[in-house]
Amino acid sequence: MKEVLIVKHAVGGRTFVHSETDVLRYDVLPDGEGWRITVSTLKSAAIEELLRWKNELNVFLFQEFEDQPTRKIWFYVKEGPVEYEDGLEQLTIRAQSRIEYVPDEFDM
Fold this sequence. Notes:
The protein is mostly beta strands. The protein has one domain: Pnp Oxidase, Chain A (Roll). It has 1 helix and 9 strands. A 5-stranded antiparallel beta sheet has the order 2-1-5-6-9. Strands 3-4-8-7 form a 4-stranded antiparallel beta sheet, with no helix packed on it. Strand 3 and strand 4 form a beta hairpin. The radius of gyration is 14 Å and the shape is globular. The two termini are 26 Å apart.
């Protein structure tokens, strides 16, 4: 399975983090009632901008399989904390809920 993590500005659609094009490591783990997404990355202009718009983020995880359609997981950050820790060079996003779906199952 191949995964791609994308963090975007919900209103403008600007991409702040894209694991396929950015050099980074990430984890998505259950955290109490929600999920914790941690991204190991240098603090850049994109991360600074992400922090500026932290209340308007969309976080997606695309899971691509060889034998089945791609699954998309959309995490809702709502007002969950979004923080960058300089010492660890780590971005942490806490999401309160998520929706999993297969985009191929929706006719447009």
